[in-house]
Amino acid sequence: MIGIIDYGAGNLHSVDKAVRKLGFQTKLLTNPEDFTGINKIIFPGVGNAKKTMEIIRASKIDTKIIQSIAAGTPFLGICLGMQLLLEFSEENNADCLSIFEGKVLPFKRDVKVPHMGWNEVQQQINHPIFKGIPDKADFYFVHSFYVNPSNNKDAIGTTDYGQEFCSVIAKDNVVGVQFHPEKSADAGLTLLQNFCGNSF
Amino acid sequence: MTAKKIIPCLDVKDGKVVKGINFEGMREMGDPVAMAKAYSDNGADELVFLDISATTEGRDTMVDVVKQVAAQVNVPFTVGGGIRTVDDIARILDAGADKVGINSAAVARPELIKEAAEKFGSERIVAAVDAKLFPDGTWRVMTHGGLKDAGIDAIEWSKQLEQLGAGSLLPTSVDRDGVKDGYDLELTKAIVEAVNIPVIASGGCGNAEHIVEVFEKTNVDAALAASIFHENSVSIQEVKELCRNRGVNVSEA
């Protein structure tokens, strides 16, 4: 059973639909009790970092996320759901979940913000999440902030948008992607399949 | 940098895809869900649906169409047409659309863009600008399906839409719509240079060459086309192949 975190603000229906279309069963996680019996967790995020952290702290989902990750449950953060895995976001100065060391920073104003559209992901290492996906495949991005992990080796995929930034982050059982796999045609579905299926 | 996007546009009336010339004279083209699925399977980077139903029943049908498209299509899609209030926007986004297109309602009440951007995020708000070239050489904003002169300069209006919080702009040349003469390159260029948000060229695409041309001659982010895809005169992959051969960066999607 794939758990999809629903904190009531994000548009997670498309993630849920894409995962179910691949043949996996899903369950929406809206409070800590829902985490029982879940094998893998997806955290799709849309919205503001500070506000979202307040919501998941109030519902105690934040503790559940940290515990599940520590227990080894495979975890995929998408977009804001990736950014919240860092220590701190400069989007309204939010303290985040501190799964990865590093910060979330805004794009500088010499590029169009939000970074919106299809862009290449350069795979820095062979990682199970990339199985069957060609290097430099295009994915669909919509974001104004990006993650800047302190440890370079956590950045397993990078993308160029006026500057090179980390578009895929991974450590042990946790992966975060800045793009929207559920909106990234075949490459995106392959990535979701890799996470939900046996390769991860 | 981001790839240039090819976006098929589906005008939907009472649950069917239709296409008109200069915003008038509609022809029925097919089922929106099946067409959307075929386009996304064939490399469309995004899709745009314009609901041109005039009735409440037609609008309700559109919400059902949006739900079905969301279930079957895995590229982003925008839904516009007839959106007047924040509640209208919520209804379309809840049904599964990624973005909404707002046109006349913003002309009538510009704060709608601001309220929508604050509530849903700029990236989900596409402001459509229907523009017509007037004899004095300026483009003016048109409303009511391209028929009514709003008395506003289209370039100034585009800047204002950006300031209000629109995440991208969809300027359509009313003079070119459905005429297949090519995009209005001057209008497109003027708007791209006036704002710092993504711009989608629209209106007038008659062949693949027009798409390459708009990418070569303006710094637009995306090209929207309807007839050339609906009539199967060229496939999206063929357009992308032509773009690549001419050095235009398009996605592999």
Automatic annotation (TrEMBL), chain A:
Xref: InterPro entries: Class_I_gatase-like, GATASE, Imidazole-glycPsynth_HisH
Any GO molecular function: lyase activity
Gene expressing this chain: hisH
UniProt pathway annotation: Amino-acid biosynthesis; L-histidine biosynthesis; L-histidine from 5-phospho-alpha-D-ribose 1-diphosphate: step 5/9
Domain Glutamine amidotransferase: 4-195
Keywords noted in UniProt: Amino-acid biosynthesis, Cytoplasm, Glutamine amidotransferase, Histidine biosynthesis, Hydrolase, Lyase
Protein task: IGPS catalyzes the conversion of PRFAR and glutamine to IGP, AICAR and glutamate. The HisH subunit catalyzes the hydrolysis of glutamine to glutamate and ammonia as part of the synthesis of IGP and AICAR. The resulting ammonia molecule is channeled to the active site of HisF.
Cell inner membrane is among the record's keywords: no
Xref: PANTHER family: IMIDAZOLE GLYCEROL PHOSPHATE SYNTHASE SUBUNIT HISH (PTHR42701), IMIDAZOLE GLYCEROL PHOSPHATE SYNTHASE SUBUNIT HISH 1 (PTHR42701:SF2)
Entry's localization field: Cytoplasm
Subunit structure: Heterodimer of HisH and HisF.
Gene3D superfamilies: 3.40.50.880
Organism: Lederbergia graminis
Annotated EC: 4.3.2.10, 3.5.1.2
Xref: CDD domains: GATase1_IGP_Synthase (cd01748)
Catalysed conversion reaction: 5-[(5-phospho-1-deoxy-D-ribulos-1-ylimino)methylamino]-1-(5-phospho-beta-D-ribosyl)imidazole-4-carboxamide + L-glutamine = D-erythro-1-(imidazol-4-yl)glycerol 3-phosphate + 5-amino-1-(5-phospho-beta-D-ribosyl)imidazole-4-carboxamide + L-glutamate + H(+); L-glutamine + H2O = L-glutamate + NH4(+)
Descriptive protein name: Imidazole glycerol phosphate synthase subunit HisH
UniProtKB/TrEMBL annotation, chain B:
GO molecular function: lyase activity
Subcellular localization, as worded in the UniProt entry: Cytoplasm
Catalytic activity: 5-[(5-phospho-1-deoxy-D-ribulos-1-ylimino)methylamino]-1-(5-phospho-beta-D-ribosyl)imidazole-4-carboxamide + L-glutamine = D-erythro-1-(imidazol-4-yl)glycerol 3-phosphate + 5-amino-1-(5-phospho-beta-D-ribosyl)imidazole-4-carboxamide + L-glutamate + H(+)
Record key words, sorted: Amino-acid biosynthesis, Cytoplasm, Histidine biosynthesis, Lyase
Highest taxon in the source lineage: Bacteria
Pathway, per record: Amino-acid biosynthesis; L-histidine biosynthesis; L-histidine from 5-phospho-alpha-D-ribose 1-diphosphate: step 5/9
Main localisation: cytoplasm
Pfam families from the UniProt entry: His_biosynth
Stored CDD domains: HisF
Active site: 11, 130
SUPFAM superfamilies registered for this protein in UniProt: Ribulose-phoshate binding barrel
Record-listed E.C. numbers: 4.3.2.10
Function: IGPS catalyzes the conversion of PRFAR and glutamine to IGP, AICAR and glutamate. The HisF subunit catalyzes the cyclization activity that produces IGP and AICAR from PRFAR using the ammonia provided by the HisH subunit.
Subunit structure: Heterodimer of HisH and HisF.
HAMAP family the record matches: HisF
Family statement drawn from the similarity comment of this UniProt entry: Belongs to the HisA/HisF family.
The protein's name: Imidazole glycerol phosphate synthase subunit HisF
Source organism of the structure: Lederbergia graminis
Gene transcribed to yield this protein: hisF
